[in-house]
Amino acid sequence: MVGCFLIFSVSNLLALESQNIDPFAVNNGEIPSKKEYSGALFKFNFNYPVSYEEPINTPWSKVTNGKKLTKEKAYDYIMALKKYIEPSVKTFVLDQEKWNKSLQKDWYSMLWAGENVDLTGWEGREAIYGTYTGQIQPASVYKDFGLTVPVRNYAAIYYDKVAAYTLHEVFKKCDESEDSCIPSVNNDEAQFKEGAIIIKAASASATPEQWPVLEGAAKWKIYRKPFDMNGTIKDKPPVVTDTRVTIFDIIIKDSVAAPETGWVFTTLVYDKNAKGDNAWDKMVPLGAMWGNDPAVNSAQNPKEELLETYINPKAPAYAKVTLGYGLRLSGPFDIAVKYDVKVNGKTVKKLRSSSCMSCHGTASFLPKSYNMVTPFYPVESIKNGIWTMYEPGSKIWNQWFQNRWGNIPQSEEKDVIALDYSTFLEQVLMNYAADYSHDNNLKNYSIFEKWRKFKRESRSH
Ligand code: HEC
């Protein structure tokens, strides 16, 4: 199933050292001086809840009223989620200093994600706001919306108390005083419980002058090295940089709304023309999806209506450039659209190749070998930076657009563990695998080489 990735040179294999990694690291170790930044820094809460209580009478369950979610109800559903998290999360978006100083009650962050990990290419958590480096897109993607420079995004990810209970299950053997943190994933520990909410907000490096859609957006300072189209410029020092909050994802485990996948993926985007008193009010629904619409072959029947994706007709136009396969949901920074790819030997300028749930649905882990299981995209091979995609709508392509429960892996390979749509968990398990491989002197560099290069490729358009 996995395409052939026999493409990567071995030239920089030797340059990379495997390293000892601190799973409990708060950040990547680059801390701004007081002169550069005098405010409070990101706090790392991994004191995960040790018990699970199912939320009842929730505002979103009132919207669905015991039935599967529909397009008619999706807008209200997203707004119910937005309102539910608003009391604490509004501060997180609008007031960096206040959030960093607050208790951040019931919001938790990920272990094994603080430090840089050379073997996996992970760039760790940044010190001011705990953000992770995201994808880089050229100005051309948003040329119709005034973007004049390449844009990178920086994402902050938090788990609510229900979602964090699953992090407890996965990391229950972790003990900071013993400096030990071996994840447990073999017995469905990585499956999230009903009502789990995970949020991911991403800010853009472009200023409103460079990208007018961001006028009036909330501002976050972050501490990162500069970047170019090839990624982070590693030999330059980090700088305190203003970024603008552009998107806000909310995903929820709701098996009533989403009986075939268990999850509803939603996203809000900044709309400078929306009504509201502040930049949080102006985060408007782009859409929601609760399945991949496997019954709709969008390549063969492009006009057939999707029933498991809702797109808000009033969402700002810039946010729709990057919708996924057959216009399934995907957000501005998710790179669901691949440019200049090959299909059946021909170059295709722009191919909608993913969706929130298509990409997240690949999340999996192969203990011991750590081999990459299913790539994020329906890609057959990558040679010299050229992506050859499976034929859209073909049987193999459609494997990326099925509905599966979170413990069923897409791959049929033996011993693969499905991670319930958490691509972030997949990343940190690989960070753990890098540390384990170092400690045990495993000569498995080529596995990480493949993984790292693929991740790097996936993060550019
Ligand atoms: C092509 C792949 C891809 C697509 C499409 C995608 N994501 Fe993600 N997402 C990731 C990866 C990879 C991460 C892990 C963090 C990282 O590596 O930066 C992530 C992390 C997240 C997280 C943090 C939770 C977790 O455990 O993984 C949320 C929430 C999320 N994405 C929501 C969304 C939503 C909502 C959409 C669609 C609007 C979306 N994603 C589309 C790849 C994708």
Structure overview:
This protein has helices spanning 59-64, 71-94, 96-101, 161-170, 356-360, 395-398, 423-439, 445-458, and strands at residues 132-137, 151-159, 197-204, 219-224, 227-228, 231-232, 239-253, 263-270, 283-289, 309-311, 337-343, 346-352, 364-365, 379-383, 386-389, 417-418. It has 461 residues and is of the alpha+beta class. The protein has one domain (59-458). It is globular and about 55 Å long. The protein is built from eight helices and 16 strands. The strands form four sheets. Strands 1, 2, 3, 4, 7, 8, 9 and 10 form an eight-stranded antiparallel sheet that branches. Strands 12-11-15-14 form a four-stranded mixed sheet, with no helix packed on it. The longest helix is centred in the first third of the chain and has 24 residues, at 71-94. Helix content is 19%, strand content 20%. Heme C is lined by residues 132, 134, 155, 157, 198, 200, 249, 251, 265, 267, 329-331, 334-336, 354, 356, 359-360, 376, 422-425, 427. It comes from Halarcobacter anaerophilus. This is Cytochrome c domain-containing protein.
